[in-house]
Amino acid sequence: MKLVGVCMAAMILAGSSCTGNANRTKTVTGNTDSLYLLVGSYARAQEEGIRVYVFNQETGKGTFRSGLSGISNPSFLTPSADGSRVYAVGEDEGVSSTANALSFDRAKGTLSLINSQPTNGGAPCNITLSPKEDYVLTANYMGGSITVFPLGNRGELLAGDTLTFTGSGPDKERQAQPHLHSVLFTPDNRLLLANDLGTDCIHVFPVNNKKNGNLLNRTEFYDVRLVPGAGPRHTCFAPDGKHAYLITELSGDVIVLSYDEMKLDTIQTIKADTLAARGSADIHISPDGDFVYASNRLKGDGIAIFSVSSEDGTLEKVGYQPTGVHPRNFVITPNGKYLLVACRDTNEIQVFARDAETGLLKDTGEKIEMSKPVCLKFVPME
Questions:
Q1: Rounded Cα distance, 9 and 117, in Å
Q2: What 8-state DSSP symbol labels residue 83?
Q3: Is the full-model pTM beyond 0.85?
């Protein structure tokens, strides 16, 4: 199915503000010391491309538990809410690209393959579960598409339906076509946001609650258009669900958006990449909602650190933490004490201690060595 959206401009008004909730609820979860750390990577199918570690979020130390081979380039993962299932992409660029369903034995800390399905869109680089966990969706970078997979009774992937987009951006090399980079449901479960690096759009789909066989309302979808050449990549939401933070790969900005009644409005743009490296990657907010972190690659590799205004959700840059080479996805422990970074080209996961008062990071010297790590996900232990 090919989709052409009617773009609704989101005004880029740096310095303007909107009314926020000054008394935000700060939720800090995680009382269990040890967690499973699941790692996706770039790897050949015969290699253990997905690895499971036990990570102690009090001491900052990780130990290897198990590995799974059989999937080519399992670069990105998403676990189910109860941790019993994990879904992984197979990020091949051509027809061999896949989505994969895995079962996770939390008692043993081992993964096993349930089944695989073709994405019918090259280089799936992101994967997510629907709010009711009855569908899995992939963002297909080279395919310029997203694929929606219904799930069977065992959590297996059924045949997918691929939605292909059209358009391009001003960068003739990196925006010659749509490049879907992430799929994310809003915290209220009412919208799907699909970030398209190639067309500088967020494709917005209302979630269809009617039982007509379609997860997404494809007749009322629309686009939020960003500044040309921005290259939207990943988004995270504040714990209160009222603000979103979008990292743009090409312009290296963090765009702050308010979210209310299914509407996104841009209220601030602030620079994460000051070197014009054009390689910003990932973004996350601390569990208490006080700090936003964004990774940058290609020049001055590291993590930009921002404090969050409790008044309106806007950001102020407070620091920068150098990391290993090519930091991709990173993750913050549920208790907020550590931030772990997947450094693809130095083949390591770095562990940084996080100061809850200042937001600043400190290298603990602890590292998990692994070939080409890309994606980090925590799953509670039983």
A1: 36
A2: S
A3: yes
Residue-wise burial string across 300-326, b where 16 or more C-beta atoms lie within 10 A, e elsewhere? ebbbbbbbbbeebbbbebebbbebbeb
| Residue 138 one-letter amino acid | T
How many residues would you count in the chain? 382
* Distance, CA of 184 to CA of 204 (rounded, Å): 10
pLDDT tens, position by position, 99-130: 999 999 999 999 999 999 999 999 999 999 99
DSSP-derived secondary structure letter, 151:
B
CB atoms within 10 A of CB 263: 13
Sequence-distant (6+) residues with CB within 8 A of 81 are 133
**Residue 8 and residue 201: Cα distance in Å, rounded?**
9
Beta strands 34-41 and 373-380: pairing type?
antiparallel
The residues near 170 (Cβ < 8 Å, ≥ 6 apart) are 228, 229
Rg of the chain in Å (alpha carbons): 19
- Give tens-digit pLDDT for 267-312: 999 999 999 999 999 999 999 999 999 999 999 999 999 999 999 9
Please check whether residue 315 is in contact with residue 254, taking contact to mean a CB–CB distance below 8 angstroms: yes
Eight-class DSSP state of 355: -
Question: Is residue 354 packed enough to be buried (19+ CB in 10 Å), middle (13-18) or exposed (0-12)?
Answer: buried
Amino acid (1-letter code) at residue 214: N
Residues 6+ apart with CB under 8 A from 337: 57, 58, 60, 353, 354, 356
Strand blocks (E) in 57-173: 61-68, 77-79, 85-90, 98-105, 110-118, 124-129, 135-140, 145-150, 161-165
- Cα–Cα distance for residue pair 250/44, rounded to 1 Å: 29
Count H helices and E strands in the chain, helices first: 0, 30
